[in-house]
Write a structure and sequence with these properties.
Elements: E1 3-5, E2 10-12, E3 15-22, H1 26-36, E4 43-44, E5 47-51, H2 55-60, E6 64-65, H3 68-78
Parallel strand pairs: 1-6
Antiparallel strand pairs: 1-3, 2-3, 3-5, 4-5
């Protein structure tokens, strides 16, 4: 089980954000996020948006630090990339 996270370099809502992904399944991603206590509303299409203050917790829990470019590559190569306009709820699995 490997989860990946990019640095908190994405601005929004007065904070900086990271993206948390899996390259295996959404079920794995949802389970990891749930263990961290990330609310379901943090899930967007194919990743979780995590505010910068959760970055260290995600890494300590086992998320591997990668670049933002690597996040996109991993999602695309795994077949888990969902582009804007393809909404999927947290409970959709796969």
């Amino acid at each position: 089980m490997t989860l990946y996270i990019d640095p908190p370099t994405w601005p929004g809502h007065g904070r900086m954000w990271s993206h948390l992904i899996s390259d295996v399944s959404y079920d794995e991603l949802h389970a990891f996020a749930e263990r961290l206590g990330v609310p379901a509303r943090g899930f967007e299409r194919d990743h979780y948006d995590l505010p910068s203050h959760w970055y260290a917790d995600a890494v300590a829990a086992g998320a591997v630090e990668v670049s933002s470019r690597e996040v996109v590559r991993l999602l695309t190569e795994s077949g888990l990339r969902r582009r804007k306009g393809s909404y999927v709820s947290r409970g959709s699995g796969s």
